[in-house]
Design brief:
single chain; 5 helices; 118 residues; three-stranded antiparallel beta sheet
């Protein structure tokens, strides 16, 4: 019996970009606009993100890109979630939406591939 793979706790900016489908300059800009996005830095000065920060990034992405909030509106909405004790639930919901959209896009690509193959 093999040991279970350890759960990754910290992520580089490159890994976060891959997970969230965002560019590094977008993440850095959001850090300047949302004070709760403040990743730690390692000894080399590189950003190190935790899972909860990735969830918050996905929430911000959902508010800006899907719900079409402005930066200020998204900031206010996150503050409302925080004050209502719903921040984690809202972040998890945004993660679920992101995951479903990703699966839907992959299925569409697969359907196009399969229909072009016949």
């Amino acid at each position: 019996m093999s040991a279970a793979e350890p759960v990754q706790e910290f992520f580089s900016i490159g890994e976060v970009c891959e997970l969230t489908d965002l560019k590094p300059h977008v993440l850095r800009y959001w850090e300047s606009q949302f004070r709760f996005l403040n990743p730690a830095k390692n000894r080399s000065g590189n950003r190190v993100y935790q899972r909860r920060e990735i969830e918050l990034i996905l929430l911000v992405k959902h508010l800006l890109y899907t719900e079409k909030y402005t930066i200020e509106g998204a900031r206010q909405k996150v503050d409302e979630h925080r004050k209502g004790g719903e921040l984690r639930a809202a972040a998890r919901a945004a993660l679920t939406v992101q995951t479903l959209e990703s699966i839907e896009n992959e299925l569409k690509d697969l359907m196009r591939f399969l229909s072009s193959d016949t």
